[in-house]
Amino acid sequence: MTAFQASLLTRDDEPHPGPLGDTVHRTPLAHRAWIDLRPGWFTGADGLFEHLLETVPWRAERRHMYDRVVDVPRLLAFYGENDPLPHPALNEALRTLNAHYANEPGWPFRTAGLCLYRDGRDSVAWHGDTLGRGATEDTMVAILSLGTPRILALRPRDDHRRPIRRTLGHGDLLVMGGTCQRTWEHAVPKTTRPTGPRISVQFRPRGVR
Ligand SMILES: O=C(O)CCC(=O)C(=O)O
Ligand SMILES: [Fe+2]
């Protein structure tokens, strides 16, 4: 009995995504964009966070900005559609997303981009994921957030005055859909508050970045 209970406990600790269905809350946005939020999607998110932090080959990137080369303020990793994902729970996440979103333009999700925000100085500036179909057609980008909560801000490209903000917590899912990548921009702003590390896993359709 004790062994049985112990195995139940370990299984409960194993990272895995919960169901989606009607736990997903959709917010329609201007220009036929939308965001879906599913707080607490992942169980065992602690183990997944630690595993990714330690095993993913995180790399720093440098980019040209006008006449300078600057460090991208976060660490990155990318898994294409034929690359084994760094944890089996992410395969399960992909299957769960693809079952839930099967009728949405942009389906299916195929790749996983990972970002590590080491602290509040790490960030991503305003942008849309417009490489690939995101520039011209409706598409989806699904974000699993792990670790320290950070704000994801969104604003219409044609009106920067009132961004909307969602705090993405440990194990939460946010999906951007419809025209969101071409009519809206999103960002993870820097913060001066003491802020621990956050990992985001972005699932995207083929070719979208
Ligand atoms: O970290 C996030 O939640 C967003 C990352 C992002 O927008 C991107 O990598 O394109
Ligand atoms: Fe993005």
UniProtKB/TrEMBL annotation:
Residues 108-207 form the Fe2OG dioxygenase domain. GO terms for biological process: DNA alkylation repair. It holds the Pfam family 2OG-FeII_Oxy_2. Residues 189-209 are annotated as: Disordered. GO terms for molecular function: dioxygenase activity. It comes from the Bacteria. Keywords: Dioxygenase, Oxidoreductase. PROSITE patterns: FE2OG_OXY (PS51471). SUPFAM superfamilies: Clavaminate synthase-like. This is Alkylated DNA repair dioxygenase AlkB. It comes from Thermomonospora cellulosilytica.
